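Supplementary notes for students who missed Thursday's class. We covered one full example, reproduced here. Read the sequence, then the structure, then the short commentary at the end.
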Amino acid sequence: MTSKLNTVGIIGLAAITSLAATPALAAGTTAGTTITNTATVDYQVGGVAQGQQSASDNFVVDRKINLLVEEVGTVTTNVVPGQTNAVTTFQLTNSSNETLDFALVASQIAGGTAAHGGTDTFDATNVRIYRDNTVTGSVGSWDVGDTLLTGYVDELVVDTAIRLFVIADIPASLANNAVAGVTLRATAREGGTVSAQGAAITQTAGANMAGKDTVFADIAGVTGDAARDGSHSDNDDYTVQTATLAVTKTSRVISDPFNNTTNPKLIPGAIVEYCIAVANSGSVPATSVVINDAVPGQLNFNAGTIRLNGTVTAGTCNADGVAGGSYIAPNVTGTIATIAAGAAQTLVFRATVN
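Structure (token representation):
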């Protein structure tokens, strides 16, 4: 008897070891599968073998609804005012044990702290959802070859993850570091019919039934998305990175016909120097900065005196610019190619008092 028990123990341990070594998919056995198990009994009477007896049992595998929506990446999406087709990226995984449709909603938070810090202060416009086309185009990044979705993902098979892009336009005239929070939420729907969104799914209540029951197994998502509700969600955000320009215009008298450069006065014939300083307190460079200034009728522009790209020290313009710009009466015009974040540059010119 003891040897038999030991043998059974060894067999049982081997079976457990074998099961532990077998990898399992996240979704598991397909919902609706019928599992049948038959037991047999062989016996003897008076040393003579009798007919084998058997009994079977079967049950239907129930449906586990599980999904995951995740932001792809860990940083905000930097945008500029007036930008179109700004992209936030998410991944949707069907971890259920059945092919399903998934209804999608892209919404925006209303105030509060956004996903990557900062306070939500504006809403993007023209919000759309695209599915990554993994056959053509730039796989993993949004491009015009990706599929614009009409509110749902169709027939997403078991253990499959797909990339989704929430695309939006950014309003103009936004301040530097303005933030818009975006939420993508997916909700499981019945699958089985191609190119048509399936019906809503409800969880089976009460005791286990003979047919295919439904159990929600999803974890909680972002605020307002509870666990085991057949939905999941995650947040991302847009952060405006722009140049913020401040313009200062000053003048100083250089000389007059009587005092020359020693304590000159603003009398007719005096030479006046104007300085237009443009400072960028934003977080990105300002480019193609065009400065225009109309010379007053009481002054005569001094040809050849326009200087660009000068610097400012303690609010005073330095005489370190380079020749450039143009004058077409009455306007002085100059273009500064780039004003870096945190920097200031100038346009300087001179005129004579009539």
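Commentary. The chain has two domains: 65-206+213-240, 245-353. The CA atoms of residues 280 and 338 lie 10 Å apart. If anything here is unclear, bring it to office hours.
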